Amino acid sequence: MPIKSMSSPFEHFNDWFGTAKTADIQDPTACALGTATKDGIPSVRMVLLKGHDERGFVFYTNLQSDKSTDLKENPRAAMDFYWPQLGRQVRVKGPVELVSHEEADSYFASRPRASQLGAWASIQSRPLTARTDFENRLVEYEKKFQGREVPRPPHWSGWRIKPVRIEFWQEGEFRLHERLVYLRDGDAWRTEMLYP
Ligand SMILES: Cc1cc2nc3c(=O)[nH]c(=O)nc-3n(C[C@H](O)[C@H](O)[C@H](O)COP(=O)(O)O)c2cc1C
Q: Smallest Cα–Cα separation from 68: which of 182, 155, 196, 128?
């Protein structure tokens, strides 16, 4: 039976993501994130989805990391979720924007203190000569913020992918999979099926 299209890809994502959250999946928010340099050299790595609504799909990271450097010079990205227990894949792509300071502050405040300190101490994607250098930086920031809340570092925030294309893929027997794509069409979405 073909995948039934819904009124929007966001409703469809909510439906599939909701099912993934109740399935025996270690972390359904984990997804591969693809970026590229301005010359088009691609990179992919895992991130965690921390927000999604009609504005798009949000993850958080260091703004001086390689991925953020890519996104500053080439502000487009793709995300790929794979939920093997459900035989489902969801692919998202589109331009990116930074989330608002308020949104980033609010998410940062919800993180465990050790993760907050890690965001200060990690110079993400830069060479690390010895693990102790990182541990010493952690101790430095523990001292610096002792007895008070850890503020969000200026170099740490969220990126939102504003989708122009979302594809829902359902595994079928004998590789006769189903693919339903939503494509942004002005303010609306149109759907099409693809050969597997
Ligand atoms: C399951 C999983 C989830 C991850 N989630 C994040 C994340 O949300 N944000 C992040 O900055 N790095 C996350 N990482 C680490 C990244 O994959 C990556 O190592 C790091 O962000 C540096 O990437 P870059 O050098 O391309 O910027 C995660 C790794 C794994 C395996």
A: 155
